[in-house]
Design goal:
It is built from 9 helices and 9 strands. It is of the alpha+beta class. Helix 3 crosses helix 4 and helix 6 packs across helix 7. The relative contact order is 0.18. The model has no long low-confidence stretch (mean pLDDT 94).
């Protein structure tokens, strides 16, 4: 019998992360990112789990609405039907093509991605999504790109917060989950966070992490670390583009002030609804 892992710890092993300095970034329905630490730490900016490696810890940040926010826009508002034009594409692929034609910052449109409330570090169930800067020039591609950018801004906020709390830097992100199949989103994340984003070779890397642990337990590899090194890998790397990264720096400074400016209004709105 081999004791298993939770999905976050499995994702960590499936991404080959067995030492500090790297973080997995699961671009799923919710966005979960975690780094490995050899010391215990507790903070509102992350949740602390036992890691898959004895004596280690998995420190996770969590955005409740990830691809959930994107799916909401596609289903409720986008109104994109590629089949009408005989295109063998998904609505997301069409919207990504439109978003790719726009500059960083979606021409002055910024989103706050709290469709499902705010988790780390605010833990505010009253928080909600917002679009700031709407004007007559904005269309579906702008909103789609603004949502992608907002999730990258929020991840930068969470990642740098965890770095500050730990006193340890995260030098690379390893992306997995459905969102990792989006080249434009991975590039935006790399530009906003100003660090490389590597995409896993195995799409089901969370499942692979459980296999890594089992392989070490069965003696196929001498240790968990060696099993992870032998069984995992990445297929593509996105690196920050200087011009885009500089543009996002200014936009991020605006983004950081959105929630603090709206926090009291969210609470008031919730009270009125109730």
């Amino acid at each position: 019998m081999v004791a298993g892992l939770g999905d976050g710890q499995s994702a960590q092993l499936g991404c080959g992360i067995t030492a500090p300095g790297s973080a997995y970034l699961n671009l799923g329905t919710g966005i979960v990112s975690g780094t490995f630490s050899t010391r215990y730490a507790s903070d509102v900016r992350f949740r602390t789990l036992a890691a898959g490696i004895p004596g280690g810890y998995t420190l996770e940040t969590f955005i409740g609405g990830g691809t959930y926010n994107i799916r909401w826009f596609v289903e409720k508002f986008a109104g994109v039907n590629p089949q009408v034009f005989g295109l063998d594409l998904s609505p997301e692929q069409v919207l990504e093509a439109a978003a790719a034609m726009l500059p960083p910052g979606s021409e002055g449109l910024i989103a706050l991605p709290y469709w499902t409330g705010a988790l780390t570090p605010y833990w505010d169930h009253h928080a909600r999504g917002a679009l700031i800067g709407l004007s007559g020039i904005h269309g579906k591609g702008h909103v789609y790109r603004a949502i992608l950018e907002s999730l990258a801004f929020e991840q930068r906020f969470l990642t740098t917060g965890a770095e500050d709390a730990l006193g340890e830097s995260v030098d690379r992100l390893i992306a997995l989950g459905g969102g990792s199949r989006s080249p434009i989103w991975c590039q935006i994340v790399s530009d906003v966070l100003q660090r490389p984003v590597e995409v896993v070779r195995e799409p089901e890397s969370t499942c692979l992490g459980a296999g890594v642990l089992a392989a070490a337990a069965a003696g196929i590899h001498p240790s968990i670390q060696e099993a992870a090194a032998a069984m995992t890998g990445t297929s593509r790397t996105f690196v920050p583009e200087d011009t885009a990264a500089a543009a996002y720096d200014g936009l991020y400074a605006v983004y950081r002030d959105l929630y603090p400016s709206l926090r009291d209004l969210f609470a008031r709105l919730s009270a009125v609804r109730e």
